[in-house]
Amino acid sequence: MKKTISLLVALTMIVTSLSIAFPVFADTGAEVDTVVDELSELYQEEAEDDKSIEDSAASRVIVKANIEPETYGSAEKINGTDDVYIYQYETASEAANALEYYDSLSFVEWAETDGIVESQSSSFSADETFSYGADMFGSKYAKQYLETIDAPEVNIALIDTGINFHKVDFQSTNRVIDSGINLSDTGEEGTAQADVGSLSTVYHGSHITSILLDNTASNVNIIGYKAMNRDGYGTLSAVATCVQQAVEDGADIINLSLNGIGEPPSLIKEAIQDAYKNGVICVVAAGNYNDDVSYYYPANMDEVFTVGAVDNGGNPCFLSNYGEELDFVAPGYQIEVYGNSSLDKPQYVNGTSFAAPFIAAASAVALSVHPDYSVEEIKQVLIDSCVTKNDLAYSSPYLRDVEIKDSSLSGFTFGNLGEKAESEDLYYGYGMPQMQKIVGMDEVCSAPEFSVSSGTYHEEFELSLSSDASAEIYYTTDGSYPTAERSELYTEPLTVSSTVSIRAVAYSDGKIKSVPSSAVYKMEYYADESDFTIDDRGYITGYTGEKNEIIVPEAINGTTVKGVAEYAFYDDFDPAEMEESQQAWDRSEHLLGIVLPNTVTEIEDYAFFSFILSYVSAPGLKVIGEAGLSTPLVYLNAPNIERIEDLGLNYSNLTELDLPKLTYAGYASFRENKYLAKVKMPSLNIVPDSAFNNCYRLEEVELDSAVELEDCAFERCWFLRNVYAPDVETMGDMGFTYCDNLREISLPNLIRMDGVYNFKWCSTLTKIDLPKLQNIPEQTFMYCYMLSDINMPKVEQIGYQAFYDTYSLGNIQFDSLKVLGDEVFVNSTASELYAPNLETMGNKVFASYSTWNDTYAQNTNLKIIYAPILKTLSDETLAYTSGLTELDLPNLKTIGENALYESGVNYLYAPELETAESLPVTDNAVVVVSDKLTNCTYVPQNTTLTIQGDKGSYGEKYAESNGLEFIDVNAMGGSIRVTDAGLRFGYSFYDTQKKEVEEYGFVYAAGEQDGNDLTVEQIDGESVLQLVAYNRLTHEDETTTFNLVFTDIPQASYDMEVTARAYVKIDGKYFYSDVTTRSFNQVANAVLADDEIDENTKDALRKLYQ
Q1: Which helix (H) or strand (E) holds 496?
Q2: How far apart are CA 610 and CA 1058, in angstroms?
Q3: Which among 198, 213, 769, 829 is most buried, taking Cβ atoms within 10 Å?
Q4: Are strands 965-968 and 946-949 parallel, antiparallel or unpaired?
Q5: CA–CA dist 862, 1077 (Å, integer)
Q6: What is the pTM of this model?
Q7: CA angle 546–547–549, rounded 5-degree value
Q8: Bridge-partner residues for 193, per DSSP?
Q9: Residue 35 carries which DSSP code?
């Protein structure tokens, strides 16, 4: 069985796609190898001649021409591809003359000398930084300050996947040290060198190293300890041992960008507590599940600094954990890092793993100026320096400039163990430390003031910013946090002519930079009627104005504006040129915002196809056509929308959709909305195919009237938590696939799933309440690792692998289940199946399976199956169920081949069994059958198997022919008590399982009765009676006998039949014998005709008839 990894790296490492730019002479296939070989030889020859790379390049001319030019002067020529020719001259002056010649030829497209491309590798000087995160922290100023003092040495231990020590930029600092420790299962022994490979996890530690170097001065060393493998996993012992070793090695700070689920195990807890007692600061990533950090260790420990992530706007990174245990935040979104072996270009990563090293660096700076401070004193220094949530958080209601990358969400599992954050304050802790204040600066520069207040304006205006007299003001217009390094310097009043969000910060020598100030200006220009064309219906068909934020007049040329026609804002558009709307955005004219009059009720298909709209106000709008508003909207005021066609609002950037009157939505209406968090659509009847597909941040959905969820309705809504859809009756395929944070689902009226995979990969789904559901298709709950509470009493059919890899199931109950498909509970922890109406079971229903070596293995979890009307065990049905020891299947008729292969069953009760191709395989197993068994082809592997059956039956013959023990179970016939004209029913119970029997007894009635009518539940005290057998005898062979006796029967009743049935009660359940129907005369006649009964008994019986 697949096991839960005990320790997880607290980050999905994200690497943006890199476009590799090949030289122009290497973009066709056939001649590339030759060109590469010749160039390689050329470069080597140049090096052997002691030419510097600069001189060699200056002596080289590259020409592109459709006719091969004659070689100018003396040069070595290489024919490149795609009409490119390379000439290597001896000197730069010769090359310059040649360049002039080639450039004069009419058939030459271009000619140029070669040049030097400087790699953009990381620079770790005190005078600059390469990450916006370092700028937000003010790291440059702290580094510069520390280089002017005799700062003590500070050692940061990085316990991670190792470090790429071969990286030249790391080596050149002389601050990146190999501990020589590798406790992972990959990499080289005796070194913390990172593994080689392309996986982003390989360079996780190296990326963190680059952040630490970028934010610390030369007195700070980074010591690598390899505790995790190339895939980002490590054992508790490895991490704990590395923590202990780091403390012993003299570490001042330990960076732990990793976490696991639950309370901290003792091994980790004690190691970190020991570090704390020794004055070592442990900085820990909060985790990337948008969940309460209290559920993740070691982030939930008091002894650590727990770090969440914010983006470059100062807003919570959407994947960051939150909660009371959060101490600080730091940049953790699209952080520029270095460290890959083969790449000089930066990569961009996301997660709290990369926020943690900023706080580790801040701690190092604090220790540099306060070397004798305790852990708590350093923490207080950081707290006192923080910019709080009020000055960090920022968002514009009309603009969305911080983009979410698709790759940011790959691979998330195990989240949403706690409740949603009640307040955004829980995402910030104490805030974000500021390096300038940490190193001792006290006076804070005044925050910039704006000459014009935020608001809506209809004409452009000038905006002035001001602060302290000597201060410099830096500002941004994209919502990002302003810094001197990455923002515009304010030098003169700004002209505000379009909607803009401005954030500004002030710097002054000797002072701490100010907190940011901000303002939002929304521009709405009154458009002139002459800017539009309109048709007879009153639909706008074109716009020729120059303003990109407009208020549309209510009437144009005397015609009331009622709608926007298809392609109205794309006059030259040819639908044949485009496959989908998003492709048109690249050549769009930006119409930033539009305010439509209340008279507009419809926006037709592709009306704004080529325009990127940020905001739309249309209070009277009722219908949006196909892709009508398929644009990155941030603000939509349209409360009266009733109908949205296919793609109507997909790719928008809205954070909330409240559409109270919407009754119809088409395909992918809201797909790919990366910011949408909350949806209210109380009147929508059908949630269409792919409606909210890839709405990553969607958390809450209210669909009061929806009766159907079509295919992929909420697929890949990673952070979906709450779904309210009380009337949904049917679902298609993949409705909630990859909803990793969906913890509970209640669809009280769901009757049918028409498709597969509906909750596959809902890895934190814990509780399911589907009281009316009738079927569970293929792989519906596959990989629902935490599923433990299920209520589906009406389900009749469960398909292939429906509960595959459900690691948290216990006792499961399906009251109406009839068909159980193949491999339904493979790798499940289900311990008991209660299915009173189950008729059919498929193959390997409860086996374990290893994907690594493609083999089935033992499942020790399943203990009990209750399926009283099950008729067939198919081939390999219960194979590999070593934990299953008892099977009570009173209506089982057929057992297929290997149905119990490697099963642990040692007791099988199957009185209706007719044919069997296999039987229990364990030692000393017991099988209870009856005379209905007519064929068994199974050849026992040992002779310890015991058959209980009717004497003289096929069962007895089968036992004898295979050398097996046979026990007669037909010790329950009627007999005569001749002394008192009595009728006795005698029964025996063979307790092969040594279970405690709670009660022995009988159920009986007058006349011939069906067995189904004689149960404890049918007892009424009149026609069906009960007798508890308090008098019984247990024999040495563990057989218990007990009798039901009727005495003093009058002769007139000798022909009256009595039907009796014995029972035993075990574990609260009743187990019954077959019914026996006898009259006094029937038994008497049998006695008198039996030659083996002595004459004294017969004479006594005859006297009763006299």
Answers
A1: strand 494-496
A2: 89
A3: 213
A4: parallel
A5: 38
A6: 0.69
A7: 155
A8: 163
A9: H
Chain centre to alpha carbon of residue 974: 65
Give the pLDDT confidence score for residue 385 in this predicted structure. Answer: 94
Cα(799)–Cα(822) distance, rounded to whole angstroms? 7
Closest to 844 (Cα-Cα) out of 809, 873, 887, 819: 873
Give Cα separations from 897 to 261, 834, 919, 931, 945 (angstroms): 43, 24, 9, 21, 17
Q: Is the dihedral of CA 25, 26, 29, 35 positive or negative?
A: positive
Task: Note whether 739 and 718 are within 8 A (CB).
Answer: yes
Query: Do 744 and 724 form a contact (C-beta atoms < 8 A)?
Result: no
Rounded-to-integer distance, Cα 803 and Cα 479, Å:
46
Q: Which of 581, 599, 616, 614 is nearest to 539 (CA)?
A: 599
Give phi and psi for 408, each to the nearest 5.
-65, -15
The distance of Cα 203 from the centroid of its chain, to the nearest Å, equals 22
Residues serving a catalytic function are 160, 204, 353
Do the beta carbons of residue 820 and residue 800 sit within 8 Å?
no
The type of residue at 132 is Y
Residue 841 and residue 874 in contact, taking contact as beta carbons nearer than 8 Å: yes
Of 255, 302, 247, give the one whose Cα is nearest residue 280: 247
Instruction: Give the tens place of pLDDT for each residue, 893-941.
Output: 999 999 999 999 988 989 899 999 999 999 989 898 888 999 999 999 8
The helix/strand/coil state of 874 is coil
Residue 427 confidence (pLDDT): 85
Find out whether 622 and 644 touch, Cβ atoms under 8 Å. no
Does residue 911 have a cis peptide bond before it, meaning omega lies within 30 degrees of 0? Answer: no
> What residues form DSSP beta bridges with 849?
856
The amino acid sitting at 1022 is E
Q: Which residues neighbour 1106 within 8 Å (Cβ) at sequence distance 6 or greater?
A: none
Q: In one letter, which amino acid is 18? A: L
CA Rg, the chain, in Å? 40
What is the rounded distance in angstroms from the CA atom of residue 607 to the CA atom of residue 363?
Answer: 55
Q: Which residues are CB-neighbours of 600 under 8 A, at least 6 positions away?
A: 552, 561, 562, 563, 564, 618, 620, 621
The pLDDT of residue 299 is 95
Residues in the chain: 1106
H/E run at residue 139: helix 139-146
Closest-CA residue to 299 (of 332, 256, 265):
256
Encoding tokens for residue 872?
A: 């067939």
For 616-642, give the DSSP string.
EE-TT--EE-TTTT-S--SEEE-TT--
Domains of the chain and any CATH numbers: 31-113 (3.30.70), 132-435 (3.40.50.200), 443-523 (2.60.40), 809-968 (no CATH), 974-1105 (2.60.40.10)
CA-based torsion, 257, 263, 266, 271: positive or negative: positive
Q: Which long-range CB contacts under 8 A does 626-634 form with residues at least 24 apart?
A: 626/666, 627/580, 627/581, 628/564, 628/603, 628/604, 629/603, 630/581, 630/582, 630/606, 631/581, 631/585, 632/400, 634/396, 634/397, 634/398, 634/399, 634/400
Distance CA 962, CA 943 (A): 7
Give the pLDDT of residue 986. Answer: 64
Task: Judge contact between 181 and 163, C-beta under 8 A.
Answer: no
Residue 28 corresponds to which tokens in the numbers above?
A: 């066709």
Q: Are 8 and 260 in contact (CB under 8 A)?
A: yes
